[in-house]
Specification:
This protein is of the alpha/beta class. Helices cover 33% and strands 28% of the residues. It has two domains: 5-223, P-loop containing nucleotide triphosphate hydrolases (Rossmann fold), CATH 3.40.50; 227-293, Alpha-Beta Plaits. It has helices spanning 44-51, 73-79, 95-105, 112-121, 137-149, 167-182, 194-200, 218-225, 270-281, 296-305, and strands at residues 5-13, 19-28, 33-37, 59-64, 67-68, 80-83, 155-159, 186-191, 203-208, 211-217, 227-234, 250-252, 258-264, 286-293. Bound molecules: adenosine-5'-diphosphate and magnesium ion. Adenosine-5'-diphosphate binds at residues 14, 16, 18, 20, 38, 40-46.
Length: 309
């Protein structure tokens, strides 16, 4: 099947020579939620803006719903909805009018039933006759989303959708995004919140310094890179890790009461058995044992710091 978005050898050099994106290749399939995860300044907004035709592409090409975003700008634009990172909604206009007008901009005939559904889905129906400038920040963000959905796009971009958003709206937004995906909409969201990628995404691309350093199915990513941690609470404190265990990935807590063993979740657990046997041989008793799987957060921190000079 043809991907919904195809990014082919795309680079971006801003005026002044800054190389913001370096040879990006990425296909996104219809109906998936793809999270572009990366720290501030990594190039997330730049990449989204290029796909949406807001920022020029220096090299390479991008297809959205089969349309070249440069050569067939209109076709591509119709297929795309964008919720930008920056709110630009300080308007005297009323909610209903803004959202309906937005649909018109995409050359779509009026469809009050659709606008009503979008406003209801976003809990904006009660506010439909309010002026946008009178709304709270969270409500304004909902209006931005409603605008992006006004023309029934098959691809929706959400650029840092929950930055500075309260918990309630974040949950609503996640629920709404899932619903859209269930209706076949392709979702690309950028985030520097690991929890968001972990919560939402089917697939995650990690971007750092203008390069996509990893693209992986979320579950697989977490399984592949996830480390497990085994924490042993000792009966009696140790002054140091025993000589015979120096080669093991072991760390002793400052108070000497905890031994932390980190191991690869993929590999079999032989290491754990060996460790426990050694401890027994050394007469080191423990009163409690806990395991913890590393979260995507640990993985992400490892990744973006890896080989970074
Ligand atoms: N118009 C511009 N001109 C020059 N550099 C820019 C411009 N816009 C963004 N940048 C730079 O490109 C890099 C990526 O920015 P951006 O795409 O906004 O990152 P992110 O969205 O991941 O935080 C940053 O270093 C930023 O300073
Ligand atoms: Mg950004």
């Amino acid at each position: 099947m043809q991907p919904d978005i195809s990014i082919q050898q795309v680079s971006k050099i801003y005026e002044g020579g800054f190389h913001a994106l370096k040879n990006i290749n990425l296909d996104i399939q219809k109906g998936e939620i793809f999270a572009l995860l990366g720290p501030n300044g990594a190039g997330k907004t730049t990449l989204i803006s290029m796909i949406c035709g807001i920022v020029n592409i220096s090299e390479g090409r991008v297809l959205a719903a089969g349309h070249d975003v440069i050569k067939d700008y209109r076709g591509a634009r119709k297929a795309i909805g964008l919720v930008p990172q920056e709110l630009s909604t300080d308007s005297f206009e009323k909610v209903w009018n803004t959202v309906s007008f937005s649909r018109g901009l995409f050359g779509k005939p009026p469809n009050p039933a659709h606008i009503e559904k979008v406003l209801k889905d976003l809990s904006l129906w009660d506010k439909r006759n309010n002026r946008i400038m009178s709304l709270s920040g969270g409500m304004k963000r909902r209006v931005m989303i409603a605008k992006a959905l006004s023309h029934e796009p098959q691809i929706l971009f959400l650029d840092e959708p929950t930055a500075g958003v309260d918990v309630e709206l974040r949950k609503d937004m996640w629920a709404m995004v899932r619903k859209l995906r269930d209706n076949g909409v392709t979702i690309i969201l950028t985030t520097h919140y690991i929890e968001e990628a972990e919560e939402m995404a089917d697939r995650i691309g990690v971007i750092r310094d203008g390069e996509i350093i990893l693209v992986e199915d979320k579950e697989r990513l977490m399984a592949k890179l996830g480390n497990k941690e085994l924490r042993l609470h000792l009966q009696h404190p140790l002054a140091s890790v025993p000589e015979s265990l120096r080669d093991e990935p072991l760390e002793l807590s400052v108070n000497g009461y905890e031994l932390v063993y980190t191991f690869d979740a993929q590999r079999e657990q032989a290491g754990v058995a060996r460790l426990l046997r050694h401890l027994g041989e050394q007469g080191i008793d423990f009163r409690d044992i806990q395991t913890r799987e590393s979260s995507l957060e640990d993985i992400f921190v490892d990744l973006v710091n890896e080989n970074k000079s």
